[in-house]
Amino acid sequence: MDPRKKARLEAAGFRFGDAADFLGEADCDYKVIGLLPHHPKVSLLDKAHLGDDHETTHLIVLSIPTGEQHMNKEEELLAFLHEHVFDPILTSPVASNSLKTGVRLTITRLQQRDAAGMLQYYWSAVIGTEKSTAFARQMREEGFTRFEEIIEDFRDRFNDRWLRS
Question: What letter would DSSP give residue 26?
């Protein structure tokens, strides 16, 4: 994690460490992985309030089996979007409530689709619908990364070969 980002989060009341630090267990298979409020493989352990709007942001712990862990395609795609687009907004003390609500709605819509449907949803949003262009404009005005700004990484990673694999 970027040290500046970590310092800002600590100043806002977040704590960092491994599961033993939070659960008091010396030997466990958990690792704190960051702030992923809606990641499909996480469980909530701790809450911290940011800003005056009292939006709840969660410190997340992911259970990691001792063996190799694999995400399915939907989880992989959502994790990428959480990291690059969603979580910076959801964990921001300065993002507007309407922007956070829009992100949560987008996540919900994506979770209702299979991997192919998620890809179609992403590309439709980039091409632009009436709602998606207004939402992208709001994201840009508030200083956050939009789908349009991660196109190259997204296209390289989530292509037809990935979908068929």
Answer: S
Q: In the numeric block, which tokens belong to residue 1?
A: 């994690």
The pTM (predicted TM-score) of the whole model is 0.60
Q: At what angle do helices 97-111 and 130-141 cross, to 10 degrees?
A: 130
How far is Cα 141 from Cα 35, in angstroms, rounded to an integer? Answer: 23
| Domain edges within the chain | 3-63, 73-164
Determine contact, residues 81/45, Cβ cutoff 8 Å.
Answer: no
Residue-level pLDDT at 3 = 79
Structural tokens at position 94:
């300065």
CA torsion, ordered 12, 16, 21, 22, to nearest 10 deg: 50
Straight-line distance from the first to the last Cα atom of the chain, in angstroms, rounded to the nearest whole number:
30
